[in-house]
Amino acid sequence: MARTALRGRLLDFVGDPAQSVAAVRLVDDGLLLIDNGRIVARGEYRPLSRALNPSEEVTDLSGCLLMPGFIDTHTHFPQLDVVASPSGGLLDWLTKHAYPAEAKFADPAVCEDAARFFLDELAANGTTSACVLGTVHAQSVEALFAEAHARGMRVVAGKCLMDRNCPNELRDSADDGVRDSLDLAARWHGKARLAYAITPRFAASCSDRQLQLAGELARARPDLYVQSHLAESESEVRWVRELFPRARSYLDVYDSFGLLRERSIYAHCIWLDSIDRQRFAQSRATAAVCPSSNLFLGSGTFDFRQAVQSGMAIALATDIGGGQSFSMLAAMRAAHDVARLKGSVLPATQLFYWATRGAAQTLGWDDQVGTLEAGAEADLLVLDLAATPLLARRTAAADSVEALLFALMHLGDDRAVRETFIAGRPSKRRRRATLSGMAAVDSARSRELALRFAGRLRAAPGDGVLKP
Ligand code: GUN
Ligand code: ZN
Question: Which ligand is nearest the CA of 266, by number?
Fold first, then answer.
């Protein structure tokens, strides 16, 4: 592949903006050189452009921000078809929407189709890496890894361990769950840019024995990630207290089984007390904060101030399909709004950090992605500051990096993502919205989807009735 030269405004972080104002690095007229999937040089357009061969073409992205691709630290690929479904809260949503959708992933063809669509959608939104939950079926994760591998993506994924409190067709057993996890890890962990995560779905869906085996595996294999849900909604927390009466807290359930450690990623982390927060910070686990999902499901509001004060490692996440947007910009603005509800102001630079370098750092990828440093993998995002008339007008009026990023995260969406580079390869496919209202890679596929759903719409008793 020939070298790629991109000219634009370069933005990345050399550290945590909470620690130092010098952590944000902006080059107004910059040049990035990409070769063989990696950034080989970065800097001011002049003088760096003098090092180009006369025959080398420079892609002019002036007016765009070139930055590291987003890292979504918690999302569910099998929940595509239930994104934006109404419910009376987390447990109701799981029963009504998530579980029935996931049951369809017994069919490998469903898994393969969803994996393609899901990864297209990530790229369309500027997300270059993700930590992804499959279903209980090993074939779901097999399909996701195969598709991510073909695209050269950095992906962490795992099959859900769930041996109780769920529909029969989604239930594994403690032993089968660990065996399937080990098989998948043997096939995919460490292959190219892929990594396996031991994935107990949440404490309520796992027996003691399942958590114990998962914990033993986590201890035996510190190279594997762990991912799960923690303290998301109040009714869930009450339920977990009933199921594990001897545990001090929800966090303590995972901790007592050896599942809280570096490379453990816990989504939500809302209903924690100060002892939990301290223990979480000490364990060096990652809090994957999913504010869009928390607002959508009415789960609660993450306490950013207390989490930062206690030293918890924070990264942002969409939590598709509890979250209703694939866009990490939407996750950032929801985070901002949630913090405001609790009386704090989260700077945009902090939120962009948590969606890029901060996430990379807590996952152990800090020199590989989340940075524009020479030598890093070329996972990049090109944000068009003039993607819409309002965005153009508002960003032109910004007088600081903070003001620019603040406007961008509140006004931007996938229209602002001009291109997404995965390991140096342009990966945002041009997709068309069709008459059916469905976005699809090609019109034949979208027509097929439209036909599949045609005639299925009917009014259900109680639809549209206010349910307090
Ligand atoms: N807790 C257990 N499973 C899930 C899930 O699929 N989504 C969310 N948001 N929370 C969960
Ligand atoms: Zn989740």
Answer: 2
